[in-house]
Amino acid sequence: MTKVRRFCISALAAIALSFAGLATSPAAELGAVIRDVQPKIVKIYGAGGYRGLEAYQSGFLISAEGHVLTAWSYVLDTDYITVTLNDGRKFEEVKLLGADPRLELAVLKLDATDLAHFDLTKAAVAEPGARVLAFSNLYGVAFGDEPASVQHGVVSTVTKLNARRGVFATPYEGPAYVLDAMTNNPGAAGGALVDYQGRLLGMLGKELRHAQSNIWLNFAIPAAELRATVDAIVAGKYVRKPADEAAAKIADPHNLDLLGVSLVPDVLQRTPPYVDAVAPESPAAAAGIRPDDLFLFVNNRITQSCEAVRNELAAVHRVDPVRVTVLRGQELIEATLTLPKPAATSSTKPAAGGAAP
Amino acid sequence: MIHRLSQVRLIVGMLAISFVASSATSAVAATDDLSLREESAFRSVVAAVAPAVVSIETIGGLDTVGEMLVGTGPSSGLVVSADGYIVSSTVNFAHRPASIIVTMAGNRRLPAKLVARDEVRKLVLLKVEASGLPIPAACPQSEIAVGQWSIAVGRTFDSDRVNSSVGVVSAVNRIWGKALQTDAKISPVNYGGPLVDIRGRVLGILVPLSPTESEDESGAEWYDSGIGFAVPLEHVFAVLPRWKKGDDLKAGFLGIRFKGPNIYADAPILAHARANSPAYKAGLRKGDVLRKVDGREVEIQTQVMEAIQSRYAGDVIRLSASRINAETGKLELLDKELTLVDKLEPYKRPYLGFLPVREDGTDDGKKSVGVRYVFEKSPAAEAKLQAGDRITAVGDIAVSDRRQLALAVAESEPAKPVVLHVRRGDEKLRLEVKPAARPETVPEKLGEEPKSTNDDETAALEKPRKLQIAEFGNECSVYLPRNYTDDVAHGLVILLHPSGGFGAGELRTRLEAWLPVCRRDRLILLVPTAKDDEGTWGREDLEFLGKAVDRTAEEYRLDATRVVAVGWEEGGSLAMRAAAAYPERIRAAALVNAMLVGPLPDSEPQTPLAYYIAVEKSLPEAGRIKAGLKQLRDRDLPVTFRELPAGSDDLPAAQLGELARWIDMLDRI
User: Fold this and answer.
1) Closest CA of chain A from B98, distance in Å
2) How far apart are the CA of B35 and the nearest CA of chain A, in angstroms?
3) Can you give the pLDDT at residue B487?
4) Long-range contact list for A94-97, CB < 8 A, 24+ apart?
5) How many CB atoms lie within 10 A of CB A305?
6) B61: left (phi over 0), alpha (psi -120 to 50) or beta
7) B639: which of A71, A191, A193, B647 is 20 to 30 A away, CA to CA?
C-alpha cells in the first residue's frame, strides 16, 4: 500500500500544488457529500413479500414538493405504497403519478414541501472510470430514520444493454452505466447513483442477468435518459407508448431460402453456421458466398450458431440489404446480399392472365 | 516497453491537469483532490492498456461443460507480442469452439487460431495474423504488493470500448503460487483481460481459478465476489517462447504422497513414492524426508506442493532428501534432479500367482508365510513354487506375515524377477519368479483353506444383529456365521440393494444363497440400507459404509484383504464408489447389472483392488458397461467380467460359486 501511495503522491506532486487551497481531510469531504445526498433518498414499500419477491425498493426525491423517482416494478403495483424519508417521516397510500415500462421508471408524489432533492436539470454525466457512490436500501436493511446504504465503485463502462440481441432481458434500449459496485441486489432498484461531488448521475436499475454468461449485471440508467419522461409525467402530459413496439415482428423478413443459402444440418444447439450449398443465381451466389464459408456476422451481429443466423435474418426487412461477414479458410470476407427488386409488372400479371374475356 | 511507460506517465499528467478546470466548482464541495487524482490515474492507465486489450468471440461449440452452461458472450484477451500472439482465459474456450474471431482496438476483426493451452494456469494462447501490435509492460512480480491499486480491464460490452473495475491487490502467491488475488470485480466481462497497476503496467491476466479444482470452468462461480485471480504477466512472458511452439503446458507430477493429514503443518515425509514415477526412479522411497526444493529449505508439505504445482511437465526440479539407512542406522542424503511428467504411468502390480496361507493366530514361531495354492500356468508355477512351501523372504526383505509378503512383492522393482526365499521341508530354495499380468479368470477350484467343522447346512438362517453408528441414520444388519470364532480372521461381504431396497422376499433369497458361502469361506455378511426413505444411495451412505467396515473390524476379527462390496444395479455403482473412496477398507467391488461410475482409483501397491462385473446381456446399458471395462483395465485394475443370460436379475448358482472363489482369491499374490 505505502509503496503505491508514495508513487501516486510523488508522481502528481507538482499538480497537487495547484489544489493546495482546497485541501481538507478526505474522509470529511466524502462524508459531507454523503450527508448532503442522504436526505434525498427514500425507502419505498409496496406489493410483494412472498415467493422471494421483496416488498421494498429505493427511490429519490426530485422536487421540493415530494416528487419521487423510482424504478417501475411489481412493488408499485398496489394502492398501498408507503414511502419513508431519510428523517423517518412516513407517507402512506402514496400516489403513483405515472410510470414508463420501457425506461422502467415511475414517479410518486408525496404531500410535502421544502424537501431536499436532486435537480434533474443539473444532473451530471460520468465517463468510464469515474468514481461513483450508489445510495439504496438494498436488502431493505434500513428502517425508519436509518439512512440508506452507500456503496462505492467506478463506472466500468457505458454501454447499450441490448446491443447484442437477447443478451439482457430488459426493455430499456438506451445507454447504461455499468458499475463495479454490487448494486444488483433486492431493494436497490430505484436508488441514486452520484459522483464524488454528490451530483446525480442516474438511477440504479433492476436486477438483470446476462442471458449468455449467466452473470448479474450492476447498472444505472443515466439521468439524461430519464428526464424527458419524468418531466412529462410530472406535468401530467405523459402518454404511455406500447411497450412492445420495439419488439414488433417484421412482416416480411429475409430468410436463408430467399438468399439461396443452405447451412449444414443443424444438429447441435450450437452448430457452427457453415454454408452447405449456394443456389445458383441466388443473391448469395451473386455476392460470392461459397460452400464451406462460415457465417460470423449478420449485419454486424455475431452469429454463433445456425439458429443465430436465422434469428438475425428474421430481424431484417426483405427490402433491405443484408451485410454478412464470413470466414473462408483464415480470411474474413465481407459481402452484401440483396434480393432482386420485384419486377414492376409483377403485380399486374394476375390481372393480365384473367383479362381474357 | 520503456517508450510505453513514459507514455503512461504523460497521460497521467495530462488528465490530472485537465480536471483543474472541471472540478473547480460543485454542489457541495470538491472532494479531496487525492481521490480525484486517483480517479484520473485509473482512467489513464485503462486508456494506456486499452490498445492491447482485445475482444474475443467464438462460433459453435458445446452447450455445456461439466455442469455449467457455457457462456457465449464475448470475452477479453491481451496482446503479448507485436506479431499477433494473444493470451486469454481457457474458460472462454472450454466449449471447444469451431472458430475464434478477435476484435482488436479500433474495431479491426481478425480470425484467430488457438495455438496452445496452459492447463496449469488456465490460459490459452491465440494467434492472429498481424504486425506492429502494442505490447503492454509487465510489472515485475517482486514489485507487486498487497494493498496496491489494481484495475481490471476487459473488452466485452462494446468492442470499441473497454470496461474496467477498480480494486486492490488482496494477496500474492495464491493458488499454489500461480496467481495474485484482487478484489476488483472479476467475471466473464473481463476474464482474459489484464489486471493493471496504477502505472499502467500489467500485473496479470484475469482468470477464474480454484484452489481445489482444476477443470476449465473451476472458480468461475466466484465471479464478482471480491475474490478474483490473475496470472502474472511476467510469468506469461517467461513461458511465451516455449508456449509459442504449440505444445500445451501441462501440470507436472512427481508421484509422491506425504505422510500426515495436515499439509500446512506436517513435515514433508514421503508416505509413498509411486512405482515408475520420477520420484521412484530418482530413488526416493517411503519414509524419506524432503529437505530442499531447488535449493530452498522446506519444512512443511505445502512448500513442496507449491513448488511442484506452479511448474509444468517437462520442468526440472531439484530435490534434496534425507533418510536413516535401516541397516547402518546412518543418515543418508539424497540430492537429485527430477523431470516432472504430465502423466504418471499407472502402477503395474507384479503378479506371481499363488495364494498365501491365512495363518493368523497359528504362527508356529518360525518367521515365514505358507503357500496355500499355486495357480496353474502362473509365473509361480513356472518357477516351481509348490503348495506347502514356506516363504521366508522376498529379495532382501524378510517376511513373517501375509501382509508383509504381499507388500514386498507389490513394491518390488517393476519388470524384474522377484526373488523368493523358500523353505520346503528341510530344503532352502531361491526361486526367481518373473512377474506377469494378473489373469482375470477364476479357477474351477482353489486349494482348500481349513474349513469349518460346523456344517449343519439345513439349519435355519442366522439371526441378524444391528450395527448402528451414532452420526448416521442407516439401518444395517450383521449376519455373523454361526461358526464364527475369533480364532479365524473373517472376510466381509457387504450386500448393497438396488434403488428402492430389496424387494419382498428378495433379501431372504439372497441370504439363503450367501449365508452357506459365508459359513464355508469364513465371511461376515453386512446388509445396510440406504438412509434415504426411497432407498436411493447417497453421499452419506458412502461414508457410512467406510465407518461400518471400521466398526465391524473393531468388534470382530476381520481379514482386511477380503472385504468386498457386492451390489445390484445402483447398489453396484455404490460398491464401486466405495472401493474408490476407501481402497484401504473395501478391497473389491462386485457389480450385478450396475453402471460403472467414477472416480476410478489408482492402482497402488498397498491396496490391490479387484472388480467382478456381471451384466445381463440384453440390458440396454450392457454396451456402455462393457466399454467402461477398458478404463479399469487401463489403470491396472483387474476385472472379471461375466455376461448373464437374458432375464437374470441375479447371479445364477454357478456364478455365485465363481464369485465366492473370486472373493477367496482376493489375497492372491
Assistant:
1) 7
2) 8
3) 85
4) A94/A68, A97/A67, A97/A233, A97/A234, A97/A236
5) 23
6) left
7) B647
Residue A18 Cα, gap to closest chain B Cα (Å) = 8
Residue B395 is placed in which grid cell?
529379495
Closest CA to B380 of B408, B414, B355, B413: B355
The complex scores an ipTM of 0.77
Q: Assess A93–B contact: CB distance below 8 Å, yes or no.
A: no
Across chain A, mean pLDDT equals 83
- Residue A3, pLDDT score: 40
Contact (CB, 8 A) for B155 and A151: no
Q: What one-letter code names the amino acid at B395?
A: G
The correct CATH number of B354-433 out of 2.40.40.10, 1.10.3720.10, 3.90.226.10, 2.30.42.10 is 2.30.42.10
Identity of the residue numbered B533? D
Q: Is residue B396 predicted with pLDDT exceeding 90? A: no
Contact list, A272 vs chain B (CB under 8 Å): 59-61, 97-99
Please determine, looking at this structure, whether the domain spanning B256-339 carries the CATH number 2.30.42.10. Answer: yes
Q: Are A175 and A225 in contact (CB under 8 A)?
A: yes
Among A residues 287-306, those touching chain B with beta carbons less than 8 Å apart:
294-296, 302-305
pLDDT of residue A51 exceeding 90: no
Q: B183 at the A interface (CB within 8 A)?
A: no
Those of residues 29-58 in B touching chain A at CB distance below 8 A are: 29-39, 41-43, 46, 57-58
Q: Which residue has the cell 417484421?
A: A250
**A120-223: CATH number:** 2.40.10.10
How many residue pairs from chains A and B have C-beta atoms closer than 8 A? Answer: 211
Confidence of residue B360 (pLDDT cuts 50, 70, 90): low
Give B329→chain A minimum CA distance, Å: 52
Cβ <8 Å between B59 and A296: yes
pLDDT at A81: 93
Note the helical H segments in B537-585.
539-555, 570-581
Q: Is A153 on the interface with B (CB under 8 A)?
A: yes
**Which residue's entry shows cell 420485384?**
A342
- Give SS3 for B597: coil
Contact assessment for residue B362 and residue B435, using Cβ atoms and an 8 Å cutoff: no
Of B30, B59, B167, which has the smallest distance from its Cβ to A197's Cβ? Answer: B30
Lowest mean pLDDT among A47-51, B246-250, B271-275, B292-296: A47-51
- If one looks up domain B2-244 in CATH, what number appears? 2.40.10.120
Q: How far apart are CA B166 and CA B148, in angstroms?
A: 11
Report residue A210's pLDDT band, with 50, 70 and 90 as the boundaries: confident
Beta carbons of B73 and A213 less than 8 Å apart: yes
Contacts of A210 in chain B (CB under 8 A): 71, 73, 188
pTM of the model: 0.66
> How far is it, in rounded angstroms, from Cα A160 to Cα A167?
11
Strand ranges across the sheet with A41-45: A90-91, A82-84, A41-45, A56-61, A67-71, A105-109, A95-100
CB contact under 8 A, A154 and B109: no
Strands of B558-568's sheet in order across: B465-466, B476-479, B523-528, B490-496, B558-568, B588-592, B610-616, B639-644
Q: Which residues of A are less than 8 Å from B163 in CB distance?
A: 128, 156-157, 159, 178
Question: Under a CB-based contact definition with an 8 Å cutoff, are residues A312 and A301 in contact?
Answer: yes
Nearest CA-CA distance, residue B10 and chain A, Å:
11
| Pairing of the two strands B490-496 and B523-528 | parallel
CATH (one of 3.40.50.1820, 2.60.40.10, 3.80.30.20, 3.10.20.30) for B466-664? 3.40.50.1820
A 240-269: CB under 8 A from B: 268-269
